[in-house]
Amino acid sequence: MPDTKQTVKQFILEEFLPGEDPDELTEETQLFSSGLLDSIASLKLVSFLEQEFSISVAPHDIVADNLDTLTAIERFIETKAAA
Amino acid sequence: MAVGVARERWLAEDMRAAVGRWLGVVIPLALLVVAVRQYQLESGSFVYVTFLAFVGFVIHSLLPLRQRLPFFALLSLTGIAVVMGIEAGLWLIAVGLVLIGICHLPLSYWTRVTLLLGAGVSLVAFRETWIPAPWTGAIWPILGSMFMFRLLIYMYDLRHDKSLLTPSSTLSYFFMLPNVVAPLFPVVDYRTFRRTYYNEEEYAIYQKGVTWMFRGVVHLILYRFVYYYLTLAPEQVQTAGDFVQFVVTNYMLYLRISGLFHLFIGMMHLFGFNLPETHHLYFLASSFTDYWRRINIYWKDFMMKIFYYPSFFWLRRFGGTAALILATLVVFVATMVLHSYQWYWIRGSFVLSTPDAVFWTILAVFVVINAVWEAKKGRKRRLGKKGMTPGEFTVKALKTAATFTVLCVLWSLWQSDSVGEWLALWKVFGRGDLALEGLGPVIVVLGVAVGTTVRTGSGSEPQETKTSMSPAAVWHRLTVLRQSPVWTTVLLVGLLVMGHPRVLTRIDSPVATTMLSLREPRLNRQDQALLERGYYENLLGVERFNPELWKLYAKRPSDWRDLWETEALRNTDDFLRTELVPSTHIVYKSAPFTTNQWGMRDRDYTLSKPDNTFRVAMLGASPVLGSGVADNETFESLVEERLNEQSNGTRVYEILNLASEAYGAPSLVRVFEAKALPFDPDAVFYVDHEVSAAKAIEDVARRMTDSSEIIYPELQTLLDRAGVRVGMNHNEVARRLVPLESELMSWAYRKVVADARAREIVPVWVFLPMPTPGADRPCPPERSAFCFGSATRPGAAADQSDPRVANLFRLAQEAGFVTLDLSGVFDGHDLKSFWIAEWDGHPNAAAHRLIADRLYDALEHADPTLSAALFADRTAISTLTGGALSHARHEADREAVHSRGVLAR
Prior knowledge:
A: 83 residues, 4 helices, B: mainly alpha, five-stranded parallel sheet, 38 helices, 11 strands
């Protein structure tokens, strides 16, 4: 899934960070721990992930381990897709 | 050879750097322990746990990583046993281990959940004493705090992720060290607890912990300042300016919780738990959702995890917006219910009042609107740290000011005893000083705007070069400096020096006096008043929002009740409202309390006065009644005994103790008429103290709240003039009567004197100060009603230099009383040593002995005519009563005979 990070990054930039410099959103930028995104954003992000990658996300999946960075999100999608 | 030297040098440098970093934590941490002790923050146990954390850190930081978590678990368990005592501590640990054990039974998940519910019900049975518990009640708040929410989280994580479990992590999680001194503790998430464990460089985590602990100390000292010097009681709100002060300072009292949470979470960092920051600049939230995300993020995360996400996922079949709204509402309902559940485990009673419901409902509506708006329109988010444009700054400042203002107002609603009382506060607008009305909100808005500037600055990277001298660059450098251990150490040294008594006592300035006062935990004036008048009725919300009183009350024995909670006081259907029950014996505040056949706390007397007897009717409230001292230890009984001893049988003295708790001036007027006159006294001793005028107002306010009939036309006229009506809110009545308190007291005094003179009874007014030190801050005259101790001399008991006392003297003398001044009766002693208990400022037995000696001396020497009357000269009585009129005496006797009949019935 080489485009996963890029797809998610594009969504985050368009949905939550319009006008921001894409280079500042790195693979390790903390999205939730830093307060950049919040609970409402997490729900939008999860809906996007479910639709875009055809995965099913459970409430207990919404944790920092799975969603805090683009790398973590990619790993989470891979795990879910493999399940 | 050269390689070896270089290696040794490198090792030496590495060692020096390691020691430097270690000292960079240990030194400020040691200073923090001293600061917590010097400022006596929270309790003695808190100081002890801080010290334990310091020693624990020193050992913990030197251990190999794999041994650190077991060590922390052991340290936490040790802390429990040390703070709570071996027996109570072991019981707490045992009950906790049983609960944890149930979580891990080899049974199905839902069977274990059912067993946990069963265990919860069993604990309720112990809590309610339906089943006698083998442990002390002291363990409940801490046991509740450790398990009431964490078990929910733990079971949730147990179901979804077992990889995080180890015995050490489980024990550390439930028994974490600082929790042993904190019934209110952050609801730490187990997954976060494990995930953040040493997830950064260790000294970065430690340093963050020290910084947050320092912030916590600052919050707690600021809280003390606000609590001591700025807060107002609702009845003190007379103008719009007062209103603003009231709502803002009440909201600022939350500094205590934010301070404690910073200290607790900071302390956890010392052991590698890199937990998230809580209460981050919460006064500067720019929206309600922003507020919710800042204030207590541990609670927010708990709610999201257990309620919000599951609800949203279940509800999203109805559409995203509907799910968002309903899930948010679920969170607020859960918050309200769990708030009450939390209080049950901590305090033993549920708390769910109308202001609670209204507060949470309004906050929920605001957050829902805000959340829907953000979901639809989004909110401005920024990558990296950038400055704001002037326009953005202005909008942010206004939003911050608006959020702060609304939250202050909502907070005041939450803390009110009733919605009616809160609404009554708003009546000050329109009748106050217009300048003040405008000024207060402006000051608040400006303050918040300045705060926003600071906040904005703190989050901004300078856009110029680092060598620039622009404000942003300077701020950036300051920010870097602020995060260094040196900066924290310098500030801590400053705090310790500023708070050191040797320094402060050499400086003669109000600032030094204020700093000195901040070193000592005590009640502020309003709470001291609450403590003293708490026995009236349980109307003042001590249960919910008074941590200072709560701390004190937590030390009270369970049988330490107010008189109205005992069988010794009963309600009456007449003007008196309450009276002592005749022929009763109870233990009251740990002392025997007996009433005679007439409902006096006294030995028995015959209704008709025996020959050769000088009879005194003593009127007063709890200090005269002798709250917390034995029957034979009241100053009334001691003076009576001494008078009889001194007379050698030539004359018998009887002092009838007609006092009862909660009696203010209107009640005393009635007591004199209905209960004293039938006993045909020769003198009446009317005993007042420095807050008697406030007592009189309270007395009237309760009558209005209860819709009691006012039987005195003069009093009714006075109430009409004040605009006081039956059914009016308690605080509104008090507010309206404060300006007329002198007239109220004057009416009562004149009425008693007139009734006394009509019967040749010597009217004597006695000023008895309470053994309460005056506050450091001068008591403003318009708000002096609720200040105990001297209003003008900090640390001293009240005397005639206090305008309130001087006013009472003047009114008593103008009414025609002979006045006796017992001021200075406690001079030369620590006033608090005369309290019956740390949480109850009534005079103890030693104080009563001093009062008795002083009163006897005053009777013997203070006024020659009074002395003569008391010691066997009837002509002196005639002089003091202004000459007896035989007709008046005749009429009075007839009335007394009638009253005797009533009394006999």
